[in-house]
Amino acid sequence: MMKKHADRPSAAFIAASCCALLLGSASYLIGLFNAEMQRNEKGFHGMAYALALFGAVAVQKNTRDLMAAGVIHGEAPLPSEE
Fold first, then answer.
1. Three-state SS for 8?
2. Quick check: 82 and 75 in contact, CB under 8 A?
3. Which helix (H) or strand (E) holds 62?
4. 76 sits in which H/E element
5. Which of 48, 70, 72, 81 is the one with CA 20 to 30 A from 59?
6. Which pLDDT score, from 0 to 100, does residue 66 have?
7. What is the DSSP-derived secondary structure letter of residue 36?
8. pTM, whole model, 2 decimals?
9. 17, 23 in Cβ contact below 8 A?
10. pLDDT tens-digit profile of 62-82?
């Protein structure tokens, strides 16, 4: 049996976050599809949005990994300080 983490968000928060992400992405893509721009401009804006999503996920994962290692709370030294 797995231990439940105290730092884990509730199921309601996770569901609300997923709904907000899906609704926001769908609205952005519909607006981009209906925009009066050239196709190369639409592609640029779409790729910028995808890169921003990737960056946000990468920062969250890195922060979570550092918290798990205890680096953020000062419990463990940074990897370069070892």
1. coil
2. no
3. helix 39-69
4. none
5. 81
6. 81
7. -
8. 0.65
9. no
10. 888 887 777 666 666 666 655
